[in-house]
Amino acid sequence: MKKNSLQANKHVFGPVASRRLGLSLGVDLVKHKTCTFNCIYCECGPTTKHSGKRKEYVSRSKVISELDKILASSPGLDYVTFSGSGEPTLNSALGKVIGFIKDKYPAYKVAVLTNSSLLGSSSVRRDLSRADVVEASLDAVSAAAFEKINRPCINIKPEEFIKGIEETARRIKGQLWIEIFIVPGINDTGEELKLIKQALERIKPAEIHINTLDRPGTESDVMPADTAALEKVRRFFLPLESRIIAHPYPGSRKGAFSAGKLEDMVLALLSRRPSTLEDLKTAFAVREEELKSHLLQLRNSGRISVIKKQRGDFYKIS
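Above: the chain sequence. Below: its structure as tokens.
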């Protein structure tokens, strides 16, 4: 495999060791924290650009150029994933970028992680039609829990985007997965879980993922659900099959890129999501000592900081 450097890339990052998608190359189609929601648990921080309008927030041609440069070297990836620092379906060029990947590099699977807010739009569903996986969030069904957790920046009700998820499941060629992010004390009550289960029975997703806080979230008082609580939720959903996504991807380095300029690659990743040393080791094929040296330099210069969480020390952009 040829050496690759992400140092000049602004919109493609990683690869990221994903708990759901294995080794995943990230594609960010919006400017930092442009979103329809302002979720209390978001690892990217609070939403600074509230929008429900679809447009080409970042240049389609620049994103495609970056992807072409990287995928041409045939890196070993599990997925190319549209996620990053905001809501990817806000970008009106999403379908064209997915089409580029599927037409020129059909060996690669494409995943889109969405908060579900725009799935009621037929144009969004068309853009997602060639994705191999669409993972749609469904954190709450009652208006009260929805407002507390997702804090929508646009006028949308839970029932509206549940219908959009149902329609997306029917329209895409790939699989529709559902992610439910458990926030203790808000959406883990019997009443709320019953409503979510009823919605899942309507949607009939290929997979159901139960998640909770792993990295530092937007609001410091949001705590992760423990293993016993997550298992209780899983049992509540029976006979629907679901799985708990609560541990980091164990790490195959099969797709790790040979770093051109490690510092820039680390900063590109940390600007999208706080990561531990182990996360970064999985992402980049470098010696631990070299990675630690770069992290120390970045800390000393004030460009990154460290926050302690249950899973360990997370490096984040200062």
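The radius of gyration is 19 Å.
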